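Bench notes, afternoon.
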Amino acid sequence: MAQSLSSESLDSANALSAPEWQSLNTGDDPFLSRAFLGLAETTRAASPRLGWQAAHLALRDHTQQLQGFMPMYLRSHSFGDFSRDWQWDQAWQSAGLAYYPKLVTGIPFTPSPGPRAVLSANSTISRSQLIQGALQVARDMEVSSWQCLFVTEEDRTALLDAGVLLRQGVQFHWINRGYESFDDYLATFTADKRKKLKRERRQVSESGLSLAVWHGDEIAPQHWSALYRQYANTFRRYGNHPAFSQTFFEQIARELGQRMVIFVALQNEQPIASAICYRNANTLFGRHWGADLDCPGLHFELCYYQGIHYAIEYGLQRFEPGAQGEHKLARGFEPINTWCGYWIANPTMRHSVAQFLAREHLANEQYQQAMRSHLPFKVLPEL
């Protein structure tokens, strides 16, 4: 790292001022924002109590001007970071080593690809220097590993150049190929797939429920208790902890405004199901779903079809509805590569992980090829 740069560890995203956040090239990512990260920390979703100890990296020049930033957390377990390393702790223990704590660069409870090595608008440094700064932090902390999760293509290239191991994953994203309407989109389906999708949507239209789109700054205060209950019940149904509080959602809605989008099903003007999403100028990000009643097809309507409608109407190029879900293929969501970087401190364990990732990469390539054969399109339209 250049001698003129100083490294600073921040125990909160709010330690950077609002103007400093505004100077960062975040791509308007709603998750890599002072609002999202700061509120996640102050409302204790991302807190030491839940295994998230903020240690964000800020690089400054000799005048103390911010040059780059990287969100970083010291982690005592892997719940909520989607690193897919659940078996690694056992492997480290078998080798007589401790896997935790580990150091993670990512967004708490959010497996959405986005910028991780973030430079200021007038920065004179490179992503590589920021990554080297993160590696030095990992060495100084003597952690087992540093994980840079769900990165952009630019960050992936810089991580590869730094010798960090790259891990390929798969998500299913909807890509806007110049569609003028939802019907225009459906016209690209085979007749059988189109018929099934219409039948699914008809179940909702005939249910008597009404549908609405609410942006963050349009949500009436009295509706938040129902929206939060729906979000929390989904987690509890599967034995998981709903990390975000109602206070978080109320405040993030005010902070992000139009960059928060909720698709709602209403009965007697009351929300009985909801899908919480976020957006920037290019992409819609699906995050949370919940319902107070069981209605056939409602999950697909709110979590997928309404999002596609919205993306087409607002000219968004992509809709990322979250991790996993092969059922998304039949709705036209395509298998897309995701990338995560792993720096492993112990040479023996690094070698073992590298061999594992090489085998996994081949399996992922075969998996994606097989998944593409299940897409509903007659012929995939050109971009």
